Amino acid sequence: MTVTLVPYHQDELLPDSSFPLPRPDVVQVTRDLPEGDVWTRLAALYELVSAEVADQVTGGTVPSVVSGDCLIAEAVLAGVQRAGVDASVIWFDAHGDIHSLESSTSGYLGGMPLRQIIGDHPELLADRIGLRPLPEERAVLVDARDLDPGEKDFLATSRVRQCPVDDVVLPGGPLLLHIDVDVIDKDELPGLKYPVGDGPSTDAVLASVRRIMATGRVAALNIACPWHPPQGGDDASTRARLLKALLSD
Questions:
Q1: If both were cysteines, with which of 11, 97, 149, 235 could 41 make a disulfide (CB 3.0 to 4.6 Å apart)?
Q2: Per-residue model confidence (pLDDT) at position 232
Q3: Residue-wise pLDDT tens digits, 148-195
Q4: Are 178 and 90 spatial neighbours (Cβ–Cβ below 8 Å)?
Q5: What is the arrangement of strands in the sheet containing 218-224, beginning at the earlier edge strand?
Q6: Secondary structure of the chain in the HEC alphabet?
Q7: What CATH superfamily is the domain 2-246?
Q8: Separation of first and last alpha carbons in the chain
Q9: Confidence of residue 24 (pLDDT cuts 50, 70, 90)
Q10: What's the chain's average pLDDT?
Q11: What pLDDT, in 10s, does the model give residues 211-243?
């Protein structure tokens, strides 16, 4: 597994301390972003990410992409598709990430990627990076204990499946495994930008992830780290241990 670091939260370049990666084999993707709106800037960055993922998949490697938010998953899936692999999506998150532009009350772009993956507003990002829409029934939302009313309304009539961490129902075929670290209970992982309590433990999340990885069907792994820069050595150590565990071959 090759680790690709995309050190951004949306189009904001983050400090090195945000990603305590305990591995030497890291490919970093950065670039000077063009003028324009955020979608134009993201498309320019994500084209590089998609190409890197496609090259790794084509070469027989399972790419692992680490970044500061969940939007990058669109680029990872586009790269997997570009390599000729038709993957379903397993989405670990405390949140739904399934807002549309119309349903979001905050306007936070990080609350929209899963909805865009299944076809919402393709002109914003998907069309620009060559992402084909995923059928709803091939998206599995894991945990998602903090849903806004608009997300609940959408999920009530959609074919997106919801599962608890301890009982993830997998679709057939290849998988993109996406893990937002805030799926872990906030008391076990300090410094999250959007912390949510009453969640699964670190051990429970890691056990579930390992079960999925053990199927041998994971085509790519995407880890989103929406946390603030560490406030001390304990924060950095906790994060380094988590990333090491998630990235274990």
A1: 11
A2: 77
A3: 999 999 999 999 999 999 999 999 999 999 999 999 999 999 999 999
A4: yes
A5: 26-28, 2-6, 63-67, 218-224, 175-180, 88-95, 139-146, 161-163
A6: CEEEEECEECCEECCHHHCCCCCCCEEECCCCCCCCCHHHHHHHHHHHHHHHHHHHHHCCCCEEEEECCCCHHHHHHHHHHHCCCCCEEEEEEEECCCCCCCCCCCCCHHHCHHHHHCCCCCCCCHHHHCCCCCCHHHEEEEEEEECCHHHHHHHHHCCCEEECCCCCCCCCCCEEEEEEHHHCCHHHCCCECCCCCCCCCHHHHHHHHHHHHCCCCEEEEEEECCECCCCCHHHHHHHHHHHHHHCCC
A7: Ureohydrolase domain (3.40.800.10)
A8: 7
A9: confident
A10: 96
A11: 999 999 999 999 999 999 988 778 899 999 999
Q: Which of 138, 190, 143, 146 is nearest to 163 (CA)?
A: 143
Q: Which residue has tokens 């739904």?
A: 96
Q: Is the dihedral of CA 25, 170, 212, 173 positive or negative?
A: negative
Distance between CA atoms of residues 26 and 244, nearest Å: 13
Q: Which residues contact 137 (CB under 8 A, 6 or more apart)?
A: 159, 160, 161, 171
Q: Quick one: pLDDT at residue 249?
A: 63
Distance CA(153)–CA(226), nearest Å, equals: 25
Q: Which amino acid is at 32?
A: D
Instruction: Name the β-bridge partners of 2.
Output: 63
Q: Which residue has the tokens 């050595």?
A: 233
